[in-house]
Amino acid sequence: MKKLLIGLIKDESAKYDGYNWHDEYAKHFVDLGDDVEFFNPKSSDCQEKISKSKSDAFLWRAWHRPDDRDDAKNKIYFIDKILNKRIFPDWNMYWSYDNKAAQLTLMEKLGIPHPKTFFSRDKDEIKKFVENASYPLISKCSEGACGDNVRKIDSKNELEEHVDQILSDNGLQTYFPWIRQKGYVYLQEYMPLERDMRIIVLGDKSVYSCWFESKNWKKFGSDVNINFNDIPKKAETLCEDVAKKIGFHWAAFDVAQYNNKYYIFEFSSVFGFSFKEPLMKKFGSPNANVLQKQAEYIHNYLGRKNEK
After folding, report:
1. Out of 1, 12, 187, 205, which residue is the most buried by the measure of CB atoms under 10 Å away?
2. Between β-strands 5-9 and 35-39, what pairing exists: parallel, antiparallel or unpaired?
3. What is the pLDDT of residues 74-121, one digit of tens each?
4. Any idea what the CATH number is for the domain that residue 219 is in?
5. Residue 177: is the preceding peptide bond cis (ω within 30°)?
């Protein structure tokens, strides 16, 4: 297998994770015998440099902030579809990132099991739904992570006030001050869960699975316990099948087990890792060695492509 040149697009993860993912990826690619080069996505000549690059592929862990995410969408589309260069995640993986409405469309079209969800931009349809809704309900903004912009609605009056705000000229304030939920509702059945799963699939195999356990219905915060035991094989198989259906090289899935069935809340080609201490204790790595496995996957995937 020839030595590869991997273009790593810089991220700003250190302020949150204590390390930049591009630096970790670089170490793993070098260990595999590959060379790396770095690109600054915020520089004015980034796309020009990528256009001229001889890299076999590019890897970008674009950040979650809406401005960074949208900038990454523009650049990933350009790299993948205009330059016809290989990038991970590619446009197919990234267009639905942090977009629950887009993911819902995919899940409905492909028959992927998910909680009953009502998404609409039609005011009359929304008002009719409010009149006939059962409570409690979960309201979500189409974008957001870690429980941001997620609310539990317990009554018709509460939902009416909530919808009025969303449909108003100002919309509803979200976690990021410049982003508002406006003109649409994303309402989901409430499942009284004391735990749900995070499952990461790489290629055709699950490489990381855990339970998030808490009486806090959002399953996020200091009172959440992470548990690696007794992950249902059927849940992992479901995620492996879905990753294949949607054509992702990798994805993280949020999965619920409810009434003896499995449901996917959402999925993402860009993800992070909380609970560093239990991860270090179990895997000796704050990211459960998933970054290393991603580098190995790309190295082997490109090697097979080059041999053809």
Report:
1. 187
2. parallel
3. 999 999 999 999 999 999 999 999 999 999 999 999 999 999 999 999
4. 3.30.470.20
5. no
Retrieve residue 118's tokens.
Answer: 């009502």
CATH number of the domain residue 75 falls in: 3.40.50.2300
Tokens of 298: 């790309």
Q: Which of 183, 191, 80 is nearest to 125 (CA)?
A: 183
Amino acid at 264: I
| 182 three-state secondary structure | coil
The domain total for the chain is 3
Instruction: Classify residue 296: in a domain, yes or no.
Output: no
The overall average pLDDT reported for the chain is 93
Q: Which structural domain range is residue 60 located in?
A: 5-97
Instruction: Pull the structure tokens for residue 206.
Output: 């699950």
- 261-302, pLDDT tens digit by residue? 999 999 999 999 988 999 999 999 999 999 999 999 999 999
3-state secondary structure of 256: strand
pLDDT tops 60 at residue 219? no
